[in-house]
């Protein structure tokens, strides 16, 4: 189901009781800046999701994995799930690191690969991007696809090499 952006904004304005509100220049600038930030964040989220796949909310990942909050926290700290922090402070989870079947579980080899990345201080978005980018060393497959196809050792080795280059 899709909803036009204008309808979302109109519904919010109507619900707030401020749809007919007149704004002075300062208030108009304030609203314009806020809407600009929201639209910029939406564009950025869409661009990232086009590259790395869906970014799940906390509730979504709990639902599809059937984990408790504690189990999710343990999976993140153990390096079995990649947590992503957005610029606005929200937290999401990289969906492509999970199996396609329900209940969804971390891909085989994901933990070892994320552990290989731990030696480099890189943003988790960089790691998600690496997983989603074709690599010549993997016969032009993405590391994610190589993990799905069982090529775990090659992916872990490539992650170690990439992390070492970025750590240097």
Runs in which pLDDT lies below 50 for 5 or more consecutive residues are none
Assign a percent range to the helix content: 55-70%
If strands are numbered along the chain, what order do they take across the biggest sheet? Answer: 1-3-2
Mean pLDDT: 94
What is the strand content?
5-15%
Cα-based radius of gyration, to the nearest Å: 20 Å
**Can you count the helices?**
8
Element-level helix/strand string = HHEHHEEHHHH
Quick one: overall form?
elongated
Major sheet size, sense and barrel closure: 3 strands, antiparallel
Structural class: mainly alpha
Description:
This protein has a three-stranded antiparallel β-sheet. With 168 residues, it is mainly alpha-helical. The protein is built from eight helices and three strands. The chain has helices at residues 5-16, 25-52, 58-65, 69-77, 110-117, 124-131, 143-148, 152-167; strands at residues 55-56, 83-85, 91-94. The mean pLDDT is 94. The chain is elongated and about 60 Å long. Helix 5 (110-117) runs parallel beside helix 8.
Helix-strand blueprint:
Elements: H1 5-16, H2 25-52, E1 55-56, H3 58-65, H4 69-77, E2 83-85, E3 91-94, H5 110-117, H6 124-131, H7 143-148, H8 152-167
Antiparallel strand pairs: 1-3, 2-3
Helix pairs in contact: 5-8
Q: Could you write a compact summary of the structure shown?
A:
By secondary structure, the protein is mostly helical. Helices cover 57% and strands 5% of the residues. It has eight helices and three strands, in the order H-H-E-H-H-E-E-H-H-H-H.
Question: What are the defining features of this structure?
Answer:
168 residues, mainly alpha, 3-stranded antiparallel β-sheet, 8 helices, elongated
């Amino acid at each position: 189901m899709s909803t036009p952006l204008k309808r979302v904004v109109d519904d919010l304005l109507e619900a707030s009781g401020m749809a007919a509100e007149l704004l002075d220049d300062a208030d108009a600038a304030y609203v314009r800046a806020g809407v600009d930030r929201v639209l910029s964040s939406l564009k950025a989220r869409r661009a990232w999701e086009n590259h790395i796949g869906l970014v799940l909310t906390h509730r979504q990942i709990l639902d599809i994995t059937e984990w408790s909050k504690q189990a999710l926290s343990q999976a993140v700290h153990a390096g079995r799930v990649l947590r992503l922090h957005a610029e606005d402070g929200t937290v999401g989870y990289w969906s492509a690191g999970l199996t396609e079947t329900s209940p969804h579980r971390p891909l085989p080899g994901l933990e070892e690969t994320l552990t290989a990345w731990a030696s480099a201080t890189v943003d988790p978005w960089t790691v998600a991007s690496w997983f989603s980018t074709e690599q010549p060393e993997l016969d032009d497959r993405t590391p994610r696809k190589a993990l799905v196809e069982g090529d775990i050792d090659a992916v872990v080795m490539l992650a170690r090499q990439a992390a070492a280059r970025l750590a240097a």
